[in-house]
Specification:
18 helices; mainly alpha; 420 residues; 0% strand; Amino acid/polyamine transporter I
């Protein structure tokens, strides 16, 4: 008896909101500080660079998703356009990278709302709760994501307005810090781009939902483009507001730059509002990530690149329930054993590997499948490699090791299958 398939229940609005939920994670509340440490006001240039690379990756994902409307994202695309090994590399990179992202989002949520000493227990509770939400169907995931995204946007709007009100008395006016765009040098700007890329990495969540979107060949490319463009505008507005209110040095020194910028207005009620926004953003990203990793795991299990029992789809709720349970357990282990910085670095390496394969696969497409010029995909390949190498050496070494473990596993499995 064949396993039930996933249900096509999502429209364009649902897909856009799920993409926004995946991208508007804690990065918008936390990434500007380390980016300012690396490049000062040059983080604005880093944001542009990260946006360019992210756009190249997004268009490649959109072009591929229109042709391959099935779960699995670049795991499927790499297998179809390149070969099984490239597909496995993309899928494994996505699974390990986004599992680490789940842990990062859970830890960020807890950092904003948990009493001292209760951060990890609350993070575990968040992972288990949102895993249960995903269990009961993708439409519930989409509904909750709409609510979360709305809360985040309202909180960000309040923060930006407050920061603008406080910018008049800011220690460094835009005309001053704008002259310091290159103070961090080329490497500092590049490093800030790598840090800020983490805040963009979520549009692939839409591409992994090919079996759950109505009219996927039309809806998925449009949803990816719309969600990406909305997020670019939001990040640019928030970045300028933070720098205008704080200046580069204070932005770099702050552990919560959005809240600090909003606080310059002197409005005491703003801080809890920003904390609510940050917590909601982290939960929204975590919700979308658990669903996305589960569906890529499903696709890999269908091809026996992961254990076959993970390919099961729940007969009532039409979700890859076994895969999602495994992902939740893995995230819980990471939450209890790692810190936020380590999770983010490891995640970035895995995700950039995934997008590297996406760009290579899109570059191979021909004829009516092509929607974007090949030079854009080559730009994406180059950008992924450069940003990956700009990560801390610990992240590069750890990511390379785990990728190698996955490749060795596949070699052993294939040899065992041939021997059997």
């Amino acid at each position: 008896m064949s396993s039930p398939s996933l249900a096509r229940r999502l429209g364009l609005g649902d897909a856009v909101f799920i993409g926004l939920g995946a991208m508007l994670g804690a990065g918008v509340f936390s990434a500007f500080s380390p980016a300012a440490q690396a490049a000062g006001a040059g983080l604005l240039l880093g944001l542009v660079l990260a946006g360019v690379v992210a756009y190249a990756n997004a268009t490649s994902s959109a072009q591929l998703a229109a042709v391959y409307p099935t779960s699995g994202g670049t795991y499927v695309y790499g297998r179809a356009e390149l070969n099984d090994w490239w597909g496995f590399l993309a899928g494994w990179g996505f699974v390990i990278g986004k599992t680490a992202s789940c842990a990062a989002m859970a830890l960020t949520f807890a950092a904003y709302v948990a009493p001292a000493g209760w951060e990890r227990p609350l993070a575990v509770a968040a992972v288990v709760t949102l895993g249960a939400v995903n269990w009961f169907g993708v439409t519930r995931t989409a509904q909750l994501t709409r609510i979360i995204v709305t809360v985040v946007l309202l909180c960000l709007a309040v923060a930006v307005i407050a920061a603008g009100a406080g910018a008049a008395d800011a220690p460094a006016a835009p005309s001053v810090w704008a002259q310091e765009l290159f103070v961090g040098g080329p490497y500092g700007i590049l490093q800030s781009a790598g840090l800020l890329f983490f805040a963009f990495a979520g549009y692939a969540r839409i591409a992994t939902m090919g079996e759950e979107v109505r009219d996927p060949a039309r809806v998925i490319p449009r949803a990816i483009s719309l969600a990406f463009l909305i997020v670019v505008v939001i990040y640019a507005v928030v970045a300028v507001a933070v720098l205008a209110a704080l200046g580069p040095e204070a932005t770099a020194a702050s552990s919560d730059p959005v809240a600090a910028a909003a606080a310059t207005a002197g409005w005491t009620w703003v801080d809890p509002v920003v904390r609510v926004g940050a917590a909601a953003a982290a939960l929204g990203a975590l919700l979308a990530l658990i669903a996305g990793v589960g569906r890529t795991t499903l696709a890999m299990a269908r091809e026996r690149d992961l254990p076959a029992f993970l390919s099961a789809v729940h007969p009532r709720w039409h979700v890859p329930h076994r895969a999602e349970v495994l992902i939740v357990l893995a995230v819980v282990v990471l939450v209890l054993s790692t810190d936020l910085r380590g999770a983010i670095g490891f995640s970035s390496f895995g995700v950039l590997t995934y997008y590297l394969v996406a760009n290579l696969a899109a570059h191979r497409q021909t004829g009516s499948a092509r929607r974007y010029p090949r030079w854009l995909q080559l730009l994406g390949v180059t950008g992924c490699v450069i940003l990956a190498l700009s990560l801390p050496w610990q992240s590069v070494a750890g990511g390379t090791t785990v990728l190698a473990i996955g490749l060795v596993y596949r070699i052993v499995r294939l040899r065992a299958a041939r021997a059997g």
